[in-house]
Amino acid sequence: MLAFLNGKFLPEAEAVVPVNDRGFMLGDGLFETMRVANGKAFRLTAHLERLARGAEFLKIHLPFDLKEIQKFMALLIEKNRLPEAVLRLTLTRGSGGRGYSAKNCGSPTLVMTLHRLPPADPGELRPWSLITSSHKISAGDRLANIKTSSKILNVLARAEAEERGADEALLLDSNGTIVETAGGNIFWIDRDAVGTVLTELSGLPGITRAVVMEICRTLGLAMNQRVITPEQLRQMEGVFITQSALGIIPVATFDGQPVPPSPRVRLIANAYDQLLQQECF
Amino acid sequence: MLAFLNGKFLPEAEAVVPVNDRGFMLGDGLFETMRVANGKAFRLTAHLERLARGAEFLKIHLPFDLKEIQKFMALLIEKNRLPEAVLRLTLTRGSGGRGYSAKNCGSPTLVMTLHRLPPADPGELRPWSLITSSHKISAGDRLANIKTSSKILNVLARAEAEERGADEALLLDSNGTIVETAGGNIFWIDRDAVGTVLTELSGLPGITRAVVMEICRTLGLAMNQRVITPEQLRQMEGVFITQSALGIIPVATFDGQPVPPSPRVRLIANAYDQLLQQECF
Global pTM? Predict the structure, then answer.
């Protein structure tokens, strides 16, 4: 597989960064994960806009403009002959000195790598088991809206889920209300409405979360954004997770209890697959 | 300058890691920063113990035992002929697949780099100007005790200080009480006592913080650990910051107001320099 690194296409094994790259030393960077279908990144503009917002927040200068990045991305997919894939883009502040100060940094580092899709069709994903993580997100943290590469909390929450035999972990803030999962956003069905966490409290503004809200409007499904605790989520049916790599992932169990299924989840997952086809083919 | 990378000594420019190193992708690692004097790392055992505790918490297997790391460290200092320096040690989970799961990772990555001391004698550091950061640490976050390489919050807090013409940023938790600074721990003089943040609330358990507490016991200075807000800190004199690279750094101004100096700070800084000489020479 070829990787993209700072304007060049290299065999993945040769794509290396100096040990003084601030991404490696301090998690001083950003990333985006995109679903590639038919050689095109789904919702590319939304991902690139989020990247540009993050770069502005972190004051990292994008080494290429978004149009150029888009061209490199298309080339990477083409060169690897992998039209169905997941693409990860990483942007870091580049090489720098020891310590936190971002003064005197070199040029930013831009990496893109392509990854095979999990064996099954994403639309047919095995439902996940979800547990509540013991790790907590800082309530109202401004950084929660930025997809930085300082992701140790998410790594540990996912590891905690796996240790407990589960697939994914639900993250609460320090007030005990639900924010997101280690790798996605959370939805549920509450009587007739599709529920999700209030945008202001929902952590990272997920691109797939926005797609689901769009689908609900198109299908005329009522939406209900709210503050919710794990106890309240336990009363809901049709819980599902959204993320860019895998799309819509139904939740089978939450903290060991089965989640009652809802036909609405299949409806939304089908609409998502249709949209993906429509926009990428 | 030579760097140490996974058992080898390489010119720094050749010390590179794959772009799929989890340290680079997700800040999935740990680090330690040590003051090297007379070719010896000051309080080495404390640093290595904290590293080992962190590695256990993150479930990263140390690729060498602590005795071997110590030998490599001595060799690095010797080979570079830099007996007065700052040494950074970075340990990451190594290469891994896309996504948060730490399953199927390769061998951990261990890096050590040596850095020149700032021009002035650390004992004679220019006092710093300190501001209160707008970034918040999650109150009671278990991860706050682990020196992970997911340090974007500290990077942004330091950048905020520099933008406001200051040297360092004070970090509060979401309850508004002081935790630490972007790169160290905070102390002050309160009448006759040396004050610092309660251990349970003080974020990272600083090695230099522990040294200062030891010095206070030796000198017979009263200690006062407490919960403190920026408003309360403003009433104190002799505010100073502790960190492993630079030692004791007096604070000249806090949020633009001059901090009344205290002779106790010089007393503690001198005792720190003596201890460093005593243990390393």
Answer: 0.96
